[in-house]
Amino acid sequence: MSTMTTLSEVLNTLKARGYTVDFNLGENCLICNGDFLKIHPEDFVVDKYYRFEGASDPEDEAIVYAISSARHNLKGTLINGYGIYSDPLTDEMTKALDTRGVAAGAGAATSAEPVKSNQATPQRPEGDRPLNASLVIMDLQQRTSQVKEEPAWKNGDRNAITLFKSASMRVVLIALREGAEIKTHTAPGTISVQVLEGRIQFHTEAQAVDLEAGRMLVLHTSIPHSVLAEKESVFLLTLSSVKN
Q1: CA 34, 38, 39, 40: dihedral to nearest 10 degrees?
Q2: How many angstroms separate the CA atoms of 40 and 78, rounded?
């Protein structure tokens, strides 16, 4: 059996299997048919899912859900980020999209264990990097070397690797080539940015800050910001979603 390794392959395969509706994610429902139909958590189930680890930056991480609704006689797909900038959901939607016990597609994650590791992906097939445990040790030099050896870096202007991921915190190591930009976005929690190599410009609507190696900043939740690499740079991005 062939392995599907891209979003387009998964979506085309699911469409051929009858999952033809494009669902959009609302705060407490799925939306389709040009916003005319809202499907609430009690009216749909997740049949299967496919998870992809981002090859360039945290926003690229995604999960594809194959969803069916017997009540509305619909089958379709939902694409949602699960990385550091994933959208907050209501408790009902979180439970409805819970993939524990749901069949996983090729390269997808299985149910969570007390000690969590990264899932094998086409880019990182080993799938044995610890992401969450009572104590997680991070070798920053080793991970920096890793992101600079992978195809995403050699063929593009950026790469990233998740070092820690729990319900309340994410730590991501990001490498940007000179001139590369992470466009304006917001994060659903307080973030810190610590530069390990190079120099970046960190922009908000209120100010622009130059950060060199050895400097860091902290930004409160939901403030639009962007990052521009003034030279080849590596930095740690940490998201804390704990509410004060």
Answers
A1: 150
A2: 14
Place of tokens 């940490």: 238
**178-213 confidence digits (pLDDT tens):** 999 988 888 888 999 999 999 999 999 999 999 999
Bridge partners of 156, per DSSP, are none
Spatial distance between the Cα atoms of 176 and 186, rounded to a whole number of angstroms = 19
- This prediction's pTM: 0.58
> Which run of H or of E encompasses 9?
helix 7-16
SS3 147: helix
Q: Going by C-beta distance under 8 Å and a sequence separation of 6 or more, which residues neighbour residue 234?
A: 144, 147, 173, 174, 175, 176, 195, 196, 197, 198
| CATH among 3.40.605.10, 2.20.130.10, 2.40.50.140, 2.60.120.10 for 137-240 | 2.60.120.10
Instruction: Decide: 10 and 4 in contact? Cβ < 8 Å.
Output: yes
Q: For 1-17, write each residue's pLDDT tens digit.
A: 345 556 677 888 899 99
- Residue 42's pLDDT band (cuts 50, 70, 90): very high
Report how far residue 76's alpha carbon sits from residue 95's, in angstroms, rounded to the nearest whole number. 19
Residue 233 has pLDDT above 90, yes or no: yes
Q: What is the dihedral of CA 109, 112, 117, 122, to 10 degrees?
A: 0
Domain ranges of the chain: 7-104, 137-240
End-to-end CA gap in the chain: 49
How far is Cα 29 from Cα 57, in angstroms, rounded to an integer?
27
How many Å apart are CA 71 and CA 45, to the nearest integer?
A: 11
